[in-house]
Structure formats: structure tokens, C-alpha cells
Amino acid sequence: MTDCCNSNTYQRQRAVRLVIIGGGSAAFAAAIRATELGARATIINDRLPIGGTCVNVGCVPSKTLIRAAEAHHRAGHHAFAGIESRSRVTSFPAIIRQKRELVEQLRQAKYLDVVDPLPGVRLVEGRARLVAPETVEVNGERIIGDRVLIATGVSPFVPAIPGLADAGYLTNESLFELDDLPESLIVLGGRYVAFECAQMMARFGSRVTILQRSDRILPTETADITDALTAYIHAEGIEVVTGVETRGVRREGDRLVIDARARGEARRFEASHILAATGRRPNTAGMGLEEVGVDLDRSGFVVVNDVLQTSVPGVYAAGDVIGDPEFVYTAAYEGALAAENAINGDARRRDYTALPWVVFTDPQLAGVGLDEQQAEEQGIEVEVATLPLSHVPRSLAARDTRGFIKLIRDRATDRLVGGRILAPEGSELLMEIALAIRYGITVEQIRSSFHPYLTLGEGVKLAAIAFGKDVATLSCCAT
Q: What is the dihedral of CA 386, 387, 389, 390, to 10 degrees?
């Protein structure tokens, strides 16, 4: 018998078949990586259009609308003498229409056009269900793969508040499709989606109230950050109420009424619309996952190990469906990693070292690594340097000194373990800190590096200097 007829040789020569359930960034990154490794991929998509949350109802629509609201707001709110400017929203539907055009453009250019020329990639629209560890059923067809990847993402989670479903509510998915600007809006929730949407809608002209169950907004962050951001939001006319227990919702004519208790006191809130920004739930129901042995956690997220394999050999999962961290860039990273491990063997483990994140409020909140409380919990003796933007020349020149830069370093090694930035365009300062953490760059090395004068990036250097000096005593560009 010749080698070409040997079954082991045939198995090696035959392209691995990867069946991907989902149509977002994790799914497409997996398909691209699979073809790079010589495999074939079938993408099965349902619910949202191709592109998933980010391009359709998440990052892309929210950030373009946030920028539109910011442009409108800043036209009438600046600190420069001798300049009078105003802005008026003349057509809210035009704003939404432009957003839709961008979404459609990026969906085509960054998803469909990317995989269209790839050999061995098939797109199927339909609801997928696992009927065996290697078999997926969709539209009455059974698709058999050597490996299966679950990348179905998440949907908005809406709590079971009495009367809410009957009264009607918005989620981020429906908010970004409104053709008419709400006269008033109650936002349920106090984390990043809630705050981004609240400020955006207030700047367009809605009267906005935020109701947060916890004692602080963004409760996983330290109080100095959340107190400052709350003050900035409040200064724009947004009411922020914390410690809220929502008892019920009802409709009174064209108004929605919420009965609640806020820090033990009975309160009534009313608005024309309610936005539920209360978290996200995994898209795992009705997929047959538990029937074939795939473990889910208490919230329904798929449980995976460090190589992104589920409890069933040959079945992997990636993206938001496996839980935190739920970012489009981590989803893409996980999708590619899962495909590589599925095809080549479980050689690479996921690594979230120095993972940066951003809340796109204005000022933006950006972070990476540990904060001081987390470092203390891990037994790391740290020192914190906090630099108000009033010490950053660029911020002074721009006449916008809202916020601060905070660096956290390990006293023993002089290496950064974390950073938090609250600043206009603060996200653009974050990667220097992230790279310093990832590659062990010390505070002294940052302090001795050139940073151009009158850039926001200079603020990172000044924050590094602040560990040993009072920056208020320095001249321009002095170290």
C-alpha cells in the first residue's frame, strides 16, 4: 500500500473543518486565522447582522453618536475669550441616518469583503444548535466539523422589574435606532454603557436621569475616579441618583413612571423613555450546549480553560460569550487563538497582561493594570502619583483641565503595575502605560524619556516625575 492510500496520511492532508457559531469579531478572526492555517471554516450567524455587537449596535454606532453629541456640545461650551459660537440640532434623523451609513459601510468593508476572497469560508444565516460535539444543525442541514467554536456573543440584560416590560423600554440596540430624540430619559444602570449613553443623549438635548443600584457609579473603580466623573456629569445637568432600589414601572399617558427607594427614601421618577443599561447576558440559550455536555456558569456564560476549550473536547468558545473581559479587541484575540489551538493543538494559553480599557465619556476614563486597592489585595506594596491636569501644559492651553493622571508603581521594583486616566482624550494616553507594564519599563525610564512639549502625552512623564518631585516647582519642560 502506498502512502497516498494510508489513512493517517489522508487525515493529515485533508483540511481541518472548523464550524463557527456566531458572526462577530471573534467569529471572523477565527475564520481568518483558520484559513491562514490551511483549514476550512463555516460561519453560522443569527440575530444581529454580520459583524455582531461592535459594528451593528455597540462600538461603531455609539462612538460616532458620542462624537456627534460632543461636537454639538463643545460648540456652545468652551473657555476661549472673544469667540461666540452656538450649535443646534436641526435634524436628529439625519444624525441617525449618517450613523447607519457608517455601520453599513464598515460591515461590508471590514467583515463581508474581508472573508469573501478567502478560500474555504462559507457563510450561513440561521439559528444553530449543537446536536453532537462535532455536529451543528441549522436550517434543517447538519454540518459536521472536526472542531466547533462557539462565538455567539451577548445581548442586553434587562432585570425583571415589575411593569417594565409592559411599560416599554429601550436598550442600546434600540436607542441607536431612534428617529426622534427623547424629550427625557431615565437610564437604569451606572456602568460604562449607561454613562456613555446618558451623556450622549443629554448633550443632544434630552433631560437625563441616571438611577444606579450601587452606592457609586462604576463601583469597581476607586472613589476618587467615580466622584470626579459624577461631578463632571452632574455639571452638564444630568441627575445621578445612587443607592436606588427600583420597585416598579408604569405608564401614565405618554409618561413612564418609576417608583423606587433611593437610600431608604421613597422616590418617583418620570420621563418619556427608559433605557435599560443594566448589563449583558450570554447568547447560549436554546443551542443544545448543555445537552452535549458544554458547561455553563450560573449566568449562562460558556466555561473555558486557558486554551479556550470547553468541557467537551473539540468544542471551543471565544468572545463575549465566555464573559469578562468583554471587549471587541479581546474577542478578536480569543477567536484567532481558539482557531489556532483547535487546528494545531492546544499550545497557546490566553494572556491578558496589561489589558487596557476605556469608558468613552467626556472626560474619558481609561485604565490598565491594577488600581491601588487591587495591588494591596495582591500583597504588592505600591506608591501612587496623581497628577491633576492643571499641571499639564497642553490642558492649560486647551483651557480644559478636567481630570487627572494616576500611576501606581511597585515600590520594590520601580515598575508600574497600573494606571488610571480621567481626561479629555484620556484613552490616547493609555498605551504608553500599558506597554510600560507589559515590558517592565520603570518609572525612572519613563521620567528620563523625551516627551514633546504641549502634548497630552507629556502628562504621563509629569505623573512619573510626581513620584519624587512637586511638579508645581518645575519650569516648562524641566525634569
A: 120
The CATH number corresponding to 356-469 among 3.30.450.20, 3.40.1400.10, 3.40.1010.20, 3.30.390.30 equals 3.30.390.30
Query: What gap in Å lies between CA 136 and CA 94, rounded to an integer?
Result: 42
Q: Is the pLDDT of residue 4 over 50?
A: no
Beta strands at 184-188 and 273-276: parallel, antiparallel or unpaired = parallel
229-235 contact pairs (CB < 8 A, 24+): 229/195, 229/361, 229/363, 229/365, 229/422, 232/361, 232/362, 232/363, 232/402, 232/403, 233/195, 233/198, 233/199, 233/361
Backbone angles phi, psi at 396, to 5 degrees: -65, -45
- Show the cell assigned to 114: 474581508
Question: Rounded CA gap, 198 and 190, in Å?
Answer: 10
Top CATH class, 12-156+281-344: alpha beta
The candidate with the shortest Cα–Cα distance to 403, out of 378, 429, 369, is: 429
- Give the pLDDT confidence of 62-86 residue by residue, as tens digits: 999 999 999 999 999 999 999 999 9
Statement: 164-278 belongs to CATH 3.50.50.60:
yes
Residue 7 has pLDDT above 50, yes or no: no
As a dihedral over the C-alpha atoms of residue 387, residue 393, residue 395, residue 399, rounded to 10 degrees, the angle is: 130
Q: Is 318 strand, coil or helix?
A: coil
The domain locations on the chain are 12-156+281-344, 164-278, 356-469
Q: Do domains 164-278 and 356-469 have the same CATH topology?
A: no
Give the H/E segment covering residue 42. strand 40-45
pTM of the model: 0.93
SS3 195: helix
Selection from 403, 402, 416 nearest residue 461 by Cα: 416
Tell me what the pLDDT averaged over the chain comes to: 95
- Separation in Å, CA 86 to CA 89, 94, 179, 182: 10, 19, 23, 21
Q: What is the pLDDT of residue 14?
A: 75
Helices (H), 49-171: 52-57, 59-76, 92-107, 113-115, 164-167
Structure confidence at residue 347 as a pLDDT band (50, 70, 90): confident
Grid cell for residue 24: 462577530
CA atoms within 13 A on the CB side of 447: 18
Q: Which three cell numbers stand for residue 222?
A: 476607586
CB distance 335 to 308 below 8 Å: no
Q: For residues 359 and 189, what is the distance between their CA atoms, to the nearest angstrom?
A: 14
